[in-house]
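Quick start: what a row looks like.
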Amino acid sequence: STPETMGRISGFAWGIGYMGGLASLMLCVPFVREGITVDNQMNVRITAWITSGFFLVGGLPMFLLVKERGERRSGLTFFQAVAAGTHRVRETFRHVKAYEALAKFFPMYFLYTAGLSIVIAFSSVYAERELGFRPMELMKLFIVLQISACLGAVSFGWFQDRIGSRRTILITLIMWWGVVAGTALCESKTLFIVIANAAGLAIGATASASRTYVGLLVQPGRTAETYGFMGLFAKLASGMGAL
């Protein structure tokens, strides 16, 4: 993409991902109608096979059709490549002042991603234990959320290219404050569904805008390394948030 179109392309890509999640969910629905329980464990196990098959079929176009665009360094052994990568990361930490904007952003990204991980980890537990959602009601809710997340990613992607990724992230964080406060006060299934769909819009938009913001700050030739750091902070946040 170009800097002018990065937001909408990132949003469109996230949107396609959520549609993939929707398709995978729909394939699994018949096997979890009776709930994710010990009595239904054989059917639940089948969903793991469905998901792995979904990855296989979905990954084939990547293996068969997508070509590498970057230049490969020939003649490196596996251990030489690992050593070169480690040296490169060490150099990045040594010259962290050259990445001042990213050095400020990643800790903030860690914090709000930890918050998102809490919502993702406990939303179904909250809905079931506090509001009395049954297994199929939860499944239907998650199906609807895939659609709202797709809409959020695509629409806010278009937004990003007009008002900027940073402002878009701030708007989505304000949405998250409303979502979490609303959930704490929620006492009905209907209101929870409305709030959950607002969360769906926000989660797609937050993910897309964060990736775009990093893409606009990355230095030429360091894209994979920078997104690797982004992934590291995201995984740390997922663990720490749930903890």
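That is the whole record. The chain has a mean pLDDT of 88. The first helix runs from residue 6 to 28.
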